[in-house]
Design brief:
With 492 residues, the protein is α/β, with parallel strands linked by helices. The chain has 18 helices and nine strands. Helix 1 packs across helix 4 and helix 2 packs antiparallel against helix 4.
C-alpha cells in the first residue's frame, strides 16, 4: 500500500464534499476514539477463545474489517494533517521499543527471502539430492508432472520439509500444457511474494521470454538446466595376437609388446551454475554481531561511521552497493537492540557478551568437571534430607464489579427525571429517547428502552396512556387507603 497516495485520495475525498473545515487534528482524534470504541464493542463481551473465532462468519468478518478500516483511515488523516511521516515514525518507534524493552529470549534475526524451485518434471526429473546441489539455497519446491508420471515426492519432503513440497499435476493435454501451467504458477507466486527468488529448473529455453519479462518487472527469476551425470564407460582392452614361429625360422620372432588397457573418459557436460543471490542485511548483521562479540569493549567501534566500516568489511560476496547493504545491516542490529546509538552524543553502546566473560564461563565449566566426586554417604544424606517447599502466598481474589442491569438504569433515569422540571418528555417517544441515552452503546446489546420503561411504570414513576401520553406521579407522600384510616380512628 502506498501511504502517500492513500492520504492524497482521502484529501480529495474530503474536498469534494467540503469537509476540510471539520477535519482538524482535534476532531480527527476524537473521531478516531469513537471508531476505536466501536471496534472494541465487537470484542467486549466475548471470551478470549471466542475472540479468536469471531471472524469465521462472513457477516462478523465484514463488521470487523469495516471498523479496522475506519480506524486506519482516521489515523492516516491525522498523520497527514500534522505532517507526520508514518513509515519513519514506525521505524523510530520500533528502535525505541527495542532499547526500552530488551529481549529476554535469544535474538532471532529475520530469515532471508524464500527461493521457489519450479521443476518441469516432463523435461527434467532430478531427485532431491541433485536438486539441492543444483540450487543449494532453495526453500520451496513445486513439482509439475504429467498425470501418469511417477515422481518421488517423499525424498523431496524429507529434504525440504513436508510443508515446502507441492505436487502440481498437469491438467489437459497439449504440447506446452505443462509449460503454460508452470508459467501461471510463477506469476501467481511473484504477485504474492515479490521479495522472493524464483528458479525454473528445466532445459527448455522456451521459458526465457517469460523470465526475461519478469526480470524487467524487477523480479528475481532465473532458469537452471539439469543434466544427468553420464555413467562410467566399461574398460576396453586391446586384443594381442600371438604369432607362432614357423619351422623355417631358427630364432623365434620377438613377440609384440602388450598394449596396456585404456579407459575411455566420460564426457563432461557443462552444467549452468545458478546465480548466487546477494546476501541479505540480516545475514550481514549476524556476521557483525559475531565479530563484535569477539572484540573487547574498548576495541569496538565508538562511532556510527566506524561501525559501518567494520560491517562493510564483512561483506565478501559481490554486491551492487556495499555501503547500502552495510547501512541496512547496522539498522538491523539497532532494531534488535544489539547496538544503541546515543542521539545527543553520537556514541554507540553494545549489548553483547565480552570475550572475557566467555572465557570465565568456560573456566567454571572445566573446574566443575575436574572437581572430585563426593563420597557416596554424603550423597545419600543429601538425598535423604527433604527440602522445605516455600509456603504459597495467599492472594485475595479481586471482587468482580457488578454488571449494570435494567434496575440500575431505571434508577438513573428516575433521578434524571426528578431533576427535570419543564423539560420532561410528555410523549412516549421522547421518554424512550431519554432512556436510550442512559443505556448507551455499551449496554444496548443486552437491554432495550422498553424494559427500562416497564420498570419505571412498576415503580410508579411514570404512567403511559394508550394514546402515548406520559404522566408523572407526584413526589408527595401517597394517600393512605380507607381501611388504614378506619384502623387509625378505632385505635385512637
Amino acid at each position: 500500500m502506498n501511504i502517500k497516495a492513500m492520504q492524497k485520495r482521502l484529501r480529495d475525498f474530503a474536498a469534494a464534499r467540503e469537509w476540510q473545515s471539520f477535519h482538524s487534528p482535534k476532531n480527527l482524534a476524537m473521531a478516531l476514539m469513537v471508531e476505536s470504541a466501536e471496534l472494541l464493542e465487537l470484542f467486549q463481551w466475548l471470551t478470549t477463545e471466542q475472540s479468536h473465532t469471531l471472524t469465521q462468519e462472513p457477516a462478523d468478518r465484514e463488521k470487523v474489517s469495516d471498523e479496522i478500516a475506519d480506524v486506519f483511515l482516521y489515523l492516516l488523516q491525522i498523520a497527514d494533517r500534522t505532517g507526520i511521516d508514518l513509515e519513519e515514525a514506525v521505524e523510530k518507534k520500533l528502535i525505541k521499543n527495542a532499547q526500552k524493552h530488551p529481549a529476554k529470549l535469544p535474538e532471532l534475526l529475520p530469515l532471508g527471502p524464500k527461493v521457489h524451485l519450479l521443476v518441469d518434471c516432463e523435461n527434467v526429473n532430478p531427485d532431491a539430492e541433485a536438486l539441492r546441489q543444483l540450487v543449494p539455497e532453495g526453500t520451496d519446491v513445486w513439482l509439475f508432472h504429467a498425470p501418469a508420471q511417477r515422481v518421488d515426492a517423499e525424498k523431496h519432503k524429507r529434504a525440504y520439509g513436508a510443508n515446502s513440497v507441492t505436487l502440481v499435476e498437469r491438467t489437459g493435454a497439449g504440447k506446452n500444457a505443462l509449460d503454460f501451467q508452470l508459467s501461471y504458477y510463477a506469476g501467481y507466486l511473484m504477485a504474492r511474494q515479490p521479495d522472493a527468488r524464483f528458479v525454473v529448473v528445466s532445459n527448455d529455453k522456451g521459458y526465457e521470454p517469460m523470465l526475461e519479462h519478469a526480470r524487467k518487472l524487477e523480479f528475481q527469476a532465473t532458469r537452471s538446466e539439469y543434466r544427468k551425470p553420464p555413467a562410467l564407460a566399461t574398460p576396453v582392452t586391446s586384443v594381442v595376437q600371438i604369432v607362432k614361429p614357423s619351422s623355417a625360422q631358427k630364432k623365434p620372432a620377438p613377440a609384440d609388446k602388450k598394449v596396456p588397457p585404456t579407459l575411455s573418459r566420460p564426457k563432461l557436460v557443462p552444467v549452468a551454475k545458478p546465480l548466487v543471490a546477494e546476501p541479505t542485511s540480516a545475514r550481514i548483521a549476524f556476521r557483525a554481531k559475531d565479530a563484535l562479540s569477539l572484540l573487547v569493549a574498548n576495541q569496538r567501534p565508538a562511532s556510527w561511521e566506524a561501525l559501518l566500516t567494520l560491517t562493510e568489511g564483512l561483506i565478501t560476496e559481490p554486491v551492487a552497493d556495499r555501503q547500502d547493504l552495510a547501512r541496512k545491516a547496522c539498522r538491523v542490529l539497532q532494531l534488535y537492540g544489539t547496538v544503541m546509538l546515543d542521539v545527543d552524543g553520537g556514541n554507540l553502546r553494545y549489548r553483547c557478551p565480552d570475550p572475557v566473560q566467555r572465557g570465565a564461563s568456560s573456566e567454571l565449566v572445566v573446574n566443575a568437571v575436574q572437581a572430585p566426586a563426593l563420597p557416596v554417604v554424603a550423597v545419600e544424606k543429601a538425598a535423604i534430607q527433604p527440602k522445605t517447599a516455600p509456603k504459597p502466598k495467599l492472594v485475595k481474589p479481586l471482587a468482580a464489579k457488578p454488571k449494570q442491569g435494567v434496575s440500575h438504569v431505571a434508577k438513573r433515569v428516575e433521578l434524571s427525571l426528578k431533576k427535570m422540571t419543564s423539560n420532561r418528555p410528555v410523549r412516549r417517544d421522547g421518554l424512550m429517547k431519554v432512556i436510550a441515552t442512559h443505556i448507551g452503546t455499551v449496554l444496548a446489546p443486552v437491554m432495550t428502552p422498553e424494559q427500562v420503561c416497564i420498570v419505571l411504570q412498576s415503580r410508579q414513576v411514570v404512567r403511559i396512556s394508550p394514546k402515548g401520553e406520559v404522566a408523572y406521579f407526584s413526589q408527595a407522600k401517597a394517600v393512605k387507603s380507607p381501611e388504614a384510616q378506619v384502623q387509625q380512628q378505632t385505635s385512637g
